[in-house]
Design goal:
This protein has 108 residues and is mainly beta. The chain has one helix at residues 48-53, and strands at 14-22, 28-37, 55-61, 75-78, 84-91, 96-102. It has one domain (14-102): Thrombin, subunit H. A six-stranded antiparallel barrel has the order 1-2-3-6-5-4. The longest helix has 6 residues, at 48-53. It is globular, with a radius of gyration of 14 Å.
Length: 108
């Protein structure tokens, strides 16, 4: 039996894979992320910045269970290629949180 894809193919840019969270105290923790660009097609006044800055998803710790992702207020998400953007944890247990991006998406 074939499992359906995790994300529907809605044409929105996505990133699923490894990343690093930089906490305000300087710690860097490895994570796995599932992120999507959520630009609003009904916002006719949107600019290029708006299209690249509304992103969200899920961040899951890899191994470091003593870390509370809610301590990242805001945190910085660093992609494997070095791009970074701030995020806020929005819900879930401390080791696997929903997130909302602050500023340009680091994966577009």
């Amino acid at each position: 039996m074939t499992r359906p894809p995790f994300h529907k193919d809605d044409g929105r840019p996505r990133y699923v894979g490894p990343a690093t969270v930089l906490l305000p105290d300087g710690r860097e923790v490895p994570v796995t992320v599932s992120l999507v660009l959520r630009s609003d097609p009904d916002n006719v006044a949107r600019s290029k910045y708006d299209e690249e800055s509304t992103w969200a998803g899920r961040i899951s710790l890899v191994g470091a269970t003593e870390v509370d992702l809610f301590d990242a207020a805001p945190g910085v998400l660093r992609m494997p290629d070095g791009r970074e953007s701030e995020f806020m944890a929005t819900g879930g247990p401390p080791h696997e949180v929903g997130c909302s991006g602050l500023g340009p998406a680091p994966f577009v």
